[in-house]
């Protein structure tokens, strides 16, 4: 399989960039998944499984980007940089959100916040790495098997 052209974005970490990155990712996912459909000889229209996968990836990525804006540069006069990379290879979509800010540990007391990492992990295979140079969230999601490739369910 030929990998789709990766998406690579970088900008100052600010609220308007989250929406712009999210829309760019949604367009890229649509293009990449439609190209994958065509490559395997399927209809170019996205199946419900692929549309749901795209929705999950956009939601998880949006949460990672919001975390950058809300937490990575808290207490500094000017925000740093955030980046988004996405690629599709070997039937796995991988999305990487990174910043050059500082990790802020989740609060331990009662709060209405703090569910972002759990959400990302529920929607994808998400790994969070943080260090002195910033935080990187890597999210992976395999494409669903086509219906004709799925094992027959046992009753």
Automatic annotation (TrEMBL):
Keywords: ATP-binding, Kinase, Nucleotide-binding, Serine/threonine-protein kinase, Transferase. Residues 41-141 form the Histidine kinase/HSP90-like ATPase domain. One of its GO terms (molecular function) is ATP binding. Gene3D superfamilies: Histidine kinase-like ATPase, C-terminal domain. The keyword Nucleotide-binding applies. It comes from the Bacteria. CDD domains: HATPase_RsbW-like. This is ATP-binding protein. Residues 133-155 are annotated as: Disordered. InterPro entries: Anti-sigma-factor_SerPK, HATPase_C_sf, HATPase_dom.
């Amino acid at each position: 399989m030929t990998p789709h052209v990766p998406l690579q974005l970088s900008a100052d970490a600010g609220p308007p960039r989250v929406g712009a990155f999210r829309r760019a990712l949604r367009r890229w996912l649509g293009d990449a998944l439609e190209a994958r459909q065509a490559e395997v000889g399927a209809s170019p229209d996205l199946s419900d499984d692929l549309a749901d996968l795209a929705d999950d990836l956009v939601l998880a990525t949006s949460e990672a980007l919001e975390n950058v804006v809300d937490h990575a540069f808290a207490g500094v006069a000017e925000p740093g940089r955030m980046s988004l990379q996405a690629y599709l290879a070997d039937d796995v979509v991988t999305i990487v959100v990174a910043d050059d800010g500082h990790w802020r540990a989740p609060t331990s007391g009662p709060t209405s916040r703090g569910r972002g990492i759990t959400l990302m992990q529920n929607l994808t295979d998400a790994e969070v790495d943080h260090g002195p140079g910033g935080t990187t969230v890597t999210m992976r999601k395999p494409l669903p098997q086509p219906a004709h490739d799925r094992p027959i369910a046992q009753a």
